């Protein structure tokens, strides 16, 4: 409970101090700061003989003091109150109504308001009288004296000179609980409280020494160790002048002491709500105060919410830490909940707990105490928690009287806790309000009704400083300090609104004031009375916000309105608005030019009336309802003259809150016509590009067909020559055929560049190694013409760079070949230098300088265009297609650079190009795998092969090449003949080589027919064709062929294909065997992934590695030759990620037996796995694909598990295989 005040005493929340002290027989007064009596209890009224109404409102010193003392007492009271130096304890005589004096011992304290200001004085006292003992006329009658002493209420004792007990009366024994036997062995020192022992023995010695001792106040301990407060007198029995013994008559004042302590604790707890810094500090202070009046070794405070859903143990002190409950827990059936629900204090013993548990009334958590005092924390009718003390060992640790004390204190504890909680909540709210008050850009201040500044935020202080040159001070008169400096009109406006607000009328107005820099500043000002609880107000809050930008925007908007009107009237597009029923409400004048209507003619008409397609208005409405807007909706509207007009509509729901739409319709008739023209031109260009592509494909096919015969025959002839002259002829033929093939490849490269299909593959390389390769490639040709061929890399050029080595070599080869071609004698040199760098990227310049014939400036401008030759006369001395420099230009651009030439006719030339590259680290260089020449291993059991080709030369070449590889070859001149051969009884082929472009029936159709005839017994069918575009191989695989060999065909290519499908063997394995030559992906058209047909048996669960190797080392070596270990590892890691994703995505289809859904995945997996040498994995993918295509699904799940097994084996094996291949033997 807070310190007593008039307001606090009116609350019906707890027993008042007056009534409590009535129960203790003590007097109580409450005075205000003028000494006027605010409250008096019944005990005081009874003592003085006055009625309550006679006392309240009177000054105490005038009513109860003697006339001569009144003025002095009044001054003492006022001075002591002002300095807070009033005595806390004193004796004073007061006069009753009958004028009789009464001596009273007073204790006093101050009452304070929530801010800590003194509001009065409380006084608690007790009447005191001199204690005399009548000596009845029974001195000689010891029996009567003994009876008299035993029936006395005071404690009487007689001690020897050694302080041994000679006699104690009945009241002494009952109060302290000692037996005669115990007293026989004890002295006074054993009974007195240790704290008071020295003082009492000192007084006793003084008494023996003859010094007077007027009053003795001490504390004895009962046999149970409880203190008993005593007050009384002592005397000495002397014989012949010597002290022989002492006597004492002691009065028990324990209850009075407890009451005084209780009173102090009560008011101390009330003050704690003010002095404690926070709730935890308050709980600890409450504990310390309670320990002054009762035992508090084990104490807890638990609080609940008003809904009684949560219980929070905010304070818990216990000698057994394991008994500590959770800080917060649901409101359930525990002891605290029991006390809160009952609303009454309880004195509970161990037996009481057991009974409550047996009856199911409550649940006990932790150790059960021997005794507990628990009191609800009440504020009026509202219970906020429980306060409890307990003892685990002694049932007599507390008495029922202690419960009354705890209950009395608990109400004050509840008030203190609630006050501190409210105070903290108010503090948090105040902090939030202060944060709001000081945050943001608003200017805030408050004034009273007389115009005095009461409060303000820092924004106001800054504004005041800017306007007046000084900071504001609370209490200044704004009329004088600020408003007087305003211009008259603005000042009158402010005063007018202030006065209206002072009458209780909320105000809002805008003002423009000029700041110190001379700029106009607009503010939006709010004035609102701050109403108190009784409806009155003393202050006005003011909030001002800078709206200068808004006002400027407003003025700008107003200034633009006229312009908008003129723009609106000259608008070329149709602007319109409709209401919620689709009726036009606004239409711009441009409707006249677009649709031929006057605006007045269409306003009020349904907008749907003007759409050519009746369904379009519904589409527009649906899209607006769905998305709130419509963009680029193309439609047609009727012109007044009856013809349709194409318009592009952009519309939205009205943004101003109206239920309707607004939009713009643009006439796009001419735009659509232009687009139609562009579309036709685009179609024509695409058709031309397609024709060009088809032409290149056909040209490549037609050229490669005869070249196949030429190159094939050269290979065969090379194996049969017997003398050097013939060998020279064969070598000349091979060089000529290679030149033809180079020309064809240049044409295809140009086609790929123009189609954007040429990809750059960057790797780390060493410039010196590149230059050495170029030198080795051309040194023989240069020496034949007596040309000195050199290269030089400048010192500041990075030695290691990252770029596309193949394309770099291609550009250098073109430039060096031209330099040697056009130089009859002299020098050709290459200079490599770094011309610029930004720290990360380098621009490298390659310059090829020759001493040849040179080029004129007019011709130099035409050098880098397609099919351009400077000498086009019939007698020209130099050949070529005119594509090399054009391709070099486009490759240089792909590498991030450019190309050019410096030359004078007859003075030689310098062809240069640049590339953008970054410097590489040496550990980025790919490992160089040893080059291993393929060894042709003939078949022990010659396979029977069917060669299908309509060209006699190709038949001859192919048959001869295959025969030399150990094959038995049958030849068919077309698709129908091949079909007839495969139908021949007893004739089975191990492989079919199928030309694609044949008369009557092409190779794809023939393959399909053969598969239809042979079914699962169909051997692998390999496309052997002159189609060489990059996409051709994939197209043939999708159309049903198993592999691909491009023409011109060489023995090495045939050997690789045969050994991918038909390995040198004893008996042929029935497991899958799939590989694809990675070299063919770069040096020849791509080869699709082949898979041999496994035996048609049910697939078991995989328990061992497949019969075929998991990884084909021949393909691994080819990949290493192409890019090294890092390149190969990157390929395998990318495949691991891709294949893993494919297998995971396929799992749901496998689980639901939807195996046909796996066909795209299997097709992709077999091709990629075969390309990278994943033999077993590609074979199983091919096997499953064929099974599922033929509708054989019974072993699908088991087959998929085998596929996953082979994939896991591949992932586990390839890292070590790459490492082995990268380590030279």
Task: Please sum up the structure shown.
The protein has 1225 residues and is of the alpha+beta class. The longest helix is centred in the middle third of the chain and has 50 residues, at 669-718.
Folded structure, characterized:
The chain is 43% helix and 22% strand. With 1225 residues, the protein is an alpha+beta fold. It folds into 7 domains: 6-127, 2-Layer Sandwich (Beta-Lactamase), CATH 3.30.450.20; 145-252, PAS domain (Beta-Lactamase); 258-430, 2-Layer Sandwich (Beta-Lactamase), CATH 3.30.450.40; 443-552, Beta-Lactamase (2-Layer Sandwich), CATH 3.30.450.20; 571-667, Beta-Lactamase (2-Layer Sandwich), CATH 3.30.450.20; 759-924, Heat Shock Protein 90 (2-Layer Sandwich), CATH 3.30.565.10; 1091-1225, HPT domain (Four Helix Bundle (Hemerythrin (Met), subunit A)), CATH 1.20.120. The strands form 7 sheets. Strands 27, 28, 29, 30, 31, 32 and 33 form a 7-stranded mixed β-sheet that branches. A 6-stranded antiparallel β-sheet has the order 13-12-11-16-15-14, with helices on both faces. Helix 25 packs across helix 29, helix 31 (975-982) packs parallel to helix 32 (1003-1014) and helix 36 (1113-1151) packs antiparallel against helix 37 (1159-1171). The longest helix is centred in the middle third of the chain and has 50 residues, at 669-718. The chain is elongated and about 170 Å long. The model is unreliable at 1-15, 130-142, 870-881, 929-933 and 1064-1107 (pLDDT under 50). This is histidine kinase. It catalyses: ATP + protein L-histidine = ADP + protein N-phospho-L-histidine. Residues 698-919 form the Histidine kinase domain. Its main location: membrane. Residues 664-691 form a coiled coil.
């Amino acid at each position: 409970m807070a310190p007593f005040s008039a307001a606090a005493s009116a609350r019906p929340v707890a027993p008042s101090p007056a009534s409590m002290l009535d129960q203790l027989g003590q007097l109580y007064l409450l005075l205000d700061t003028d000494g006027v009596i605010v409250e008096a209890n019944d005990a005081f009224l009874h003592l003085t003989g006055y009625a309550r109404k006679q006392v309240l409102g009177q000054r105490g010193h005038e009513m109860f003091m003697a006339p001569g003392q009144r003025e002095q007492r009044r001054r003492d009271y006022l001075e002591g109150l002002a300095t807070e130096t009033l005595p806390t304890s004193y004796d004073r005589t007061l006069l009753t109504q009958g004028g009789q004096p009464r001596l009273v011992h007073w204790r006093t304290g101050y009452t304070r308001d929530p801010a800590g200001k003194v509001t009065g004085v409380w006084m608690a006292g007790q009447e005191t009288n001199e204690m005399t003992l009548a000596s009845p006329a029974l001195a000689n009658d010891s029996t009567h004296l003994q009876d008299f002493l035993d029936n006395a209420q005071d404690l009487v004792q007689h001690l020897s000179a050694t302080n041994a007990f000679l006699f104690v009366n009945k009241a002494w024994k009952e109060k302290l609980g000692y037996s005669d036997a115990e007293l026989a062995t004890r002295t006074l020192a054993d009974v007195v409280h240790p704290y008071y022992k020295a003082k009492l023995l000192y007084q006793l010695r003084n008494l023996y020494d003859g010094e007077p001792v007027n009053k003795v106040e001490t504390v004895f301990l009962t046999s149970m160790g409880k203190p008993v407060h005593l007050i009384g007198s002592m005397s000495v029995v002397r014989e012949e002048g010597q002290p022989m013994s002492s006597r004492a008559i002691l009065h028990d004042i324990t209850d009075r002491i407890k009451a005084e302590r209780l009173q102090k604790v009560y008011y101390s707890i009330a003050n704690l709500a003010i002095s404690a810094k926070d709730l935890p500090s308050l709980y600890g202070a409450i504990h310390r105060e309670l320990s002054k009046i009762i035992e508090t070794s084990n104490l807890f405070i638990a609080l609940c919410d008003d809904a009684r859903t949560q219980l929070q143990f905010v304070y818990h002190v216990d000698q057994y830490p394991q008994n500590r409950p959770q800080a917060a827990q649901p409101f359930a059936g525990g002891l605290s909940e029991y006390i809160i629900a009952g609303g009454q204090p309880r004195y509970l013993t161990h037996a009481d707990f057991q009974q409550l548990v047996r009856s199911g009334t409550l649940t006990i958590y932790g150790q059960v105490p021997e005794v507990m005092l628990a009191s609800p924390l009440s504020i009026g009718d509202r219970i906020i928690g429980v306060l409890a003390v307990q003892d685990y060992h002694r049932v007599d640790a507390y008495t029922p009287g202690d419960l009354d004390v705890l209950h009395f204190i608990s109400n004050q504890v509840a008030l203190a806790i609630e006050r501190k909680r409210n105070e903290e909540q108010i503090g948090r709210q105040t902090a939030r309000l202060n944060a709001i008050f000081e945050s943001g850009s608003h200017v805030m201040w408050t004034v009273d009704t007389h115009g005095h500044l009461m409060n303000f935020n820092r924004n106001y202080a800054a504004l005041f400083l800017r306007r007046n040159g000084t900071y504001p001070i609370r209490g200044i008169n704004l009329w004088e300090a600020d408003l007087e400096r305003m211009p008259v009109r603005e000042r009158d406006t402010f005063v007018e609104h202030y006065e209206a607000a002072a009458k209780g009328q909320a105000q809002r107005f805008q003002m423009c004031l000029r700041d110190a820099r001379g700029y106009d500043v607009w503010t939006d000002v709010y004035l609102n009375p701050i109403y108190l609880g009784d409806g009155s107000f003393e202050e006005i809050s003011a909030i001002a916000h800078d709206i200068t930008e808004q006002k400027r925007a407003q003025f700008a908007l107003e200034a633009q309105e006229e312009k908008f009107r003129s723009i609106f009237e000259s608008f070329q597009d149709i602007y319109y608005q409709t209401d919620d029923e689709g009726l036009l409400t606004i239409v711009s004048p441009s409707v006249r030019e677009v649709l031929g209507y006057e605006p007045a003619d269409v306003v009020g008409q349904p907008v749907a009336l003007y759409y050519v397609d009746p369904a379009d208005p519904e589409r527009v409405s649906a899209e607006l309802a769905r998305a709130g807007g419509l963009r680029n909706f193309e439609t047609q509207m009727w012109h007044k003259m009856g013809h349709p007009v194409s318009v592009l509509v952009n519309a939205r729901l009205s943004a101003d809150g109206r239920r309707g739409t607004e939009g713009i319709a643009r006439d796009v008739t001419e735009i659509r016509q232009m687009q139609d023209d562009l579309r036709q031109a685009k179609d024509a260009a695409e058709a031309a590009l397609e024709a060009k592509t088809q032409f290149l494909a056909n040209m490549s096919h037609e050229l490669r067909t005869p070249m196949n015969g030429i190159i094939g025959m050269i290979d065969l002839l090379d194996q049969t020559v017997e003398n050097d002259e013939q060998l020279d002829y064969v070598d000349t033929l091979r060089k000529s055929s290679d030149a033809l093939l180079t020309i064809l490849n240049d044409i295809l490269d140009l086609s790929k560049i123009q189609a954007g299909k040429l990809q750059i593959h960057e790797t780390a390389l060493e410039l010196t190694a590149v230059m050495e390769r170029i030198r080795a490639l051309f040194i023989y040709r240069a020496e034949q013409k007596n040309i000195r061929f050199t290269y030089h890399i400048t010192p500041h050029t990075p030695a290691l760079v990252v770029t596309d080595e193949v394309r770099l070599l291609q550009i250098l080869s073109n430039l060096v070949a031209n330099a040697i071609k056009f130089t009859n004698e002299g020098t050709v040199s290459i200079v490599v230098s770094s011309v610029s760098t930004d720290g990360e990227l380098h621009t490298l310049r390659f310059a090829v300088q020759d001493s040849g014939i040179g080029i004129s400036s007019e011709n130099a401008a035409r050098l880098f265009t397609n099919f351009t030759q400077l000498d086009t006369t019939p007698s020209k001395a130099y050949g070529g297609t005119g594509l090399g420099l054009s391709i070099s230009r486009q490759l240089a651009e792909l590498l991030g650079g450019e190309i050019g030439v410096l030359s004078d006719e007859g003075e030689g030339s310098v062809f240069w190009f640049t590339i953008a590259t970054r410097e590489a680290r040496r550990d980025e260089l790919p490992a160089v795998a040893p080059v291993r020449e393929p060894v042709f291993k003939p078949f022990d059991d010659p396979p029977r092969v069917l060669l299908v080709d309509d060209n006699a030369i190709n038949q001859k070449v192919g048959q001869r090449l295959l025969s030399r590889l150990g094959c038995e070859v049958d030849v068919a001149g077309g698709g129908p003949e091949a079909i007839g051969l495969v139908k021949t009884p007893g004739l089975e082929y191990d492989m079919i080589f199928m030309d694609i472009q044949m008369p009557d029936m092409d190779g794809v159709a023939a393959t399909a027919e053969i598969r239809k005839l042979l079914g699962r017994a169909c051997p692998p069918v390999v496309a052997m064709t002159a189609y060489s575009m990059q996409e051709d191989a994939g197209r043939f695989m999708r159309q049903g062929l198993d592999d691909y060999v491009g023409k011109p065909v060489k023995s090495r290519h045939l050997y690789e294909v045969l050994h991918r499908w038909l390995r040198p063997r004893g008996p042929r394995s029935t497991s899958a065997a799939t590989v694809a030559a990675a070299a063919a992906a770069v040096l020849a058209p791509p080869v699709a992934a082949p898979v041999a047909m496994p035996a048609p048996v049910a697939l078991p669960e995989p328990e061992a590695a497949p019969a075929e190797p998991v990884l084909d080392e021949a393909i691994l070596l080819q990949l290493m030759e192409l890019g090294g270990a890092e390149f190969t590892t990157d390929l395998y890691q990318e495949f691991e990620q891709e294949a893993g994703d494919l297998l995971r995505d396929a799992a749901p289809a496998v689980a639901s037996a939807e195996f046909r859904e796996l066909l795209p995945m299997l097709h992709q997996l077999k091709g990629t796995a075969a390309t990278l040498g994943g033999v077993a994995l590609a074979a199983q993918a091919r096997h499953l694909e064929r099974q599922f295509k033929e509708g054989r699904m019974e072993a699908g799940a088991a087959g998929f598990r085998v596929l996953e097994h082979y994939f896991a084996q591949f992932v586990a094996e390839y890292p070590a295989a790459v490492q082995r291949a990268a380590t030279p033997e």
